[in-house]
Design brief:
Shape: globular
Distance between the termini: 56 Å
Largest sheet: 2 strands, parallel
Oligomer: single chain
Strand order of the largest sheet: 1-2
Helix content: 40-55%
Strand content: 5-15%
């Protein structure tokens, strides 16, 4: 039995379900009311604040899991930001996530679209060093 806590937590924050494929749990989940993923949950409150996670190591781990699950070119955004992300970051694939997950991923190293675009601009528009400058 593989726990895979990171994947389960990420799925829970995205969809409200932890993604376990078990017949007993599926029938139980089907009887449950749908989970409102637009409301902060306990996990969001704990992972998004320095009060409980001083350096953000748990948020960084979840951001790493996000990249592993959705791809290195995936970029978390809100539904209304998809076209903006496509325009500002054409080499990134927008993934719509709830605000509660965005809050954690921002702390884990994913910036918003505008800041990411600025960072990419500065890193790609740097004049290469000449041989004289390198010495």
């Amino acid at each position: 039995f593989d726990l895979n806590i990171g994947t389960r937590l990420l799925n829970r924050l995205v969809s409200g379900k932890d993604g376990i494929e078990d017949e007993e749990e599926e029938s139980y989940d089907d009887q449950q009311d749908s989970v409102n993923v637009n409301v902060d949950c306990l996990e969001t409150q704990v992972l998004a604040t320095p009060k409980y996670d001083l350096v953000g190591i748990a948020a960084k781990a979840l951001a790493t899991r996000f990249a592993a699950q959705y791809g290195k070119d995936a970029f978390p955004c809100q539904a209304h930001e998809v076209e903006w992300v496509k325009q500002l970051l054409p080499n990134r694939k927008p993934i719509v996530v709830p605000v509660r997950l965005s809050t954690i991923l921002r702390r884990g190293g994913y910036f918003d679209a505008k800041k990411t675009e600025e960072e990419l601009w500065f890193s790609t528009n740097v004049r290469p060093a000449t041989e004289k400058e390198e010495k």
